[in-house]
Amino acid sequence: MKLRPEEITSVLKSRIQRYEAGVDIQEVGTVVQVGDGVARIQGLENAVAAEMLELPHGVMGLVLNLEEDSVGAVLMGEDTLIKEGDQVKRTGRVIQVPVGEALVGRVINPLGVPLDDKGPIETTEFRPVEFKAPGVIRRQPVKEPLQTGIKAIDSMIPIGRGQRELIIGDRGTGKTAIAVDTIINQKGQGVICIYVAIGQKASTVAGLVAKLEEHGAMDYTIVIMASASAGAPLRYIAPYAGAAMGEYFTYSGRHALCIYDDLTKHADSYRQMSLLLRRPPGREAFPGDIFYLHSRLLERACKLNDKEGGGSLTALPVIETQAGDVSAYIPTNVISITDGQIFLESDLFYSGIRPAINVGISVSRVGGNAQIKAMKKVAGTLRLDLSTFRELEAFAKFGSELDQETQRSLARGERLVASLNQPQYVPWPVQDQVMIIFAATKGYADDVQVRDISPFNASLRDYLGQQHPEIGAEIAASKDLSPETEAKLRGAIEAFKEMWSVDKVLL
Questions:
Q1: Does the annotation mark 365 as catalytic?
Q2: How far apart are CA 289 and CA 292, in angstroms?
Q3: Residues ≥6 apart with Cβ < 8 Å to 312
Q4: Residue pLDDT, tens place only, 131-168
Q5: φ, ψ of residue 442 in degrees (nearest 5)
Q6: Rounded to whole angstroms, what are the CA distances from 82 to 38, 86, 105, 143, 236?
Q7: What is the pTM assigned to this prediction?
Q8: Which residue out of 279, 365, 383, 490 is catalytically annotated?
């Protein structure tokens, strides 16, 4: 066999031409200090804020501090496995979470890892955890109601799609109960709900998920859990992850509701991380950017204009107060960011008023824009009547003789308060609320004993639903209370009153 030099040369030339040198350049750093879930790393000159880092044993790091000679990162995962001298790699991407339909009905951690034993989450779409809120031009005014199903809120402190309404009160006053009832009431409304549990016991969240499943609400709900046992970094990113998952639906022209329960524990976790990263402390040892922490989160709630698809993201942040002190640092911060607040009071709660809403302090800055016309008509004087009642009630305690007008106002106020009482997990459709509040404000319940108000309203609701379903259907369809419908409603209530009186006499 004879070798031909020209053939060998041509083969070598073609091989050389086709040769591609694949050079894999990775920026690598070294852990110089680690402890309490925080690492200081040298050698990552080009790292960016909020970038994810790869450390040994599958632990991920999140860059928060960019200093002259090192970066400060918080560790997500088993931080005790990391030691000085470990190698750290840049990923080149900022922190992001999976989003999409596959997450609906699941219980996950803030990084999108399932916690419910229902198998892996099949999704290919991701969104950054931090995202710039849309500007003024891309938004439109909040004008579409988001019904909570709670009479006291839908009548006096209405919430609209795209609004940010704070739920604030002491521990154990029913803040989470309002949030859960609101989720249950979104059934069939086309709203995807995201419940973010920050720093709660895992058993508490498990009970809440069981309740949502019982009422069929998990079909349109995502539960994100950063429990009390999770590290501060996971508790810190939890609400931002919830906002990112909600934005997926918002920017595709749909409606989402995010509940952050609660932002007090979120602020505490950020303070813990900031102090460990040696950032200078300010008031109550919180870092200087604690206001920005919550403002950049809540500004992402919006109602997009029609050109952008008309989607909305509604935010219901929860804040826990100490002994009713709304003037503390974090409560005042969040009150100034949101579009109103629902203030729950311990004294009202223990006196049997549920939900224990203090009507005087609670406010919705969107107001009647987020109410249907029928509710505006029947609940117009409700807040004023209740405020008058609270003032008169204080005077009546002195035991002085009261004139008839004052006695009438007090009697009406007691019955209004009793009419607005509502047990948990029983949200009402808006047309039923309108009819019952109409009966209370127009004086049809004035001659009913206060202890009988609850059974009176329940019987009236059943009667109207069974004997006169067309009245509720008209209110639901037109969202208004026309003179004809009002006349029908008056006639139906009067007919019921006669039956009720006969029943009471027979008893």
A1: yes
A2: 5
A3: 144, 161, 162, 250, 255, 256, 302, 303, 304
A4: 999 999 999 999 999 999 999 999 999 999 999 999 99
A5: -90, 5
A6: 10, 7, 35, 51, 21
A7: 0.91
A8: 365
